[in-house]
Amino acid sequence: MPELPEVETVKRGLEKAIVGKIIADYACDTPKMTNFSLKKVKGLKVIGVRRRAKMLIIDLTADHHILVHLKMTGQLVYRSQKKCLIGGHPIEKSCEILPNKFTHATFTFSDGTSLYYNDVRKFGWVRLYNSKEIVNYFTNLKLGPEPLSQEFTLAYLRQRIRQRPRNRVKQFIMDNTVLVGVGNLYSDEVCYYAKVRPDRKVGALTDKEIKRIHDGIIKILKAAIASQGTTFSNYVNADGEEGAYVKKLKVYGRYGKKCFKCKDVVERMKVGGRTSSFCGSCQK
Ligand SMILES: [Zn+2]
After folding, report:
1. Burial of 273 (0-12, 13-18, 19+ CB in 10 A)
2. pTM given for the model
3. Ranges for the FPG-type domain (predicted)?
4. Ion ligand 1 neighbours, Cβ < 5 Å
């Protein structure tokens, strides 16, 4: 599932690729995935690309905004004659045949380049809103702050912990109403960085541990964005789509292997229904 660093990388790549382009054609073959047709967007120009949580917002002229949610298996592919830019869920050979059997929505720009929305399981969507509707949509979701924004302070994190001391660390940092953008993968990495077990109750954390969790969220997401950014900047093959950060993972997906620090075996457990990998020696 694409997490915040992946979506941020798509945002940065798209920003360079499509800002200034004019929509000439739009088609979607799956009605439940979209809420608009070509006549609403034809002739409009892309004026910006933003990200909120794991959603992308493509700003168009005339107060039109396209919101894209990649969900579990969504992928965006921008294609010109010179390059192919892929972001989101890895799907094999995405650049070779386009559109392909997973392509459900296609934007064609007036310069002949295209943006394809591919989705294996069709949980994602592409919708059109005006700015008021966008604000309402985000307000209803009650999203917490962006982890890399100034709102996400240590004081804020402490305050939220006081409100719900019985939450487990992993569940707590994955909760979108606490903060956005920390999914299954990065929550395990943050717990390892902070040296706390993912099933600890947040109310029992020491000040130092809370500080390490706060630092870890910021550092790990920044590092992931930095390494992803290089992977997605140009043509990537199917192997490259996971992004370079995968090589830096300390515990996620490493169950049964040796901890890099203490050489004990990485364990796993369920926390709130999600499988979590951790080192029982390094994390208390
Ligand atoms: Zn260890």
Report:
1. exposed
2. 0.86
3. 250-284
4. 259, 261-262, 279, 281-282
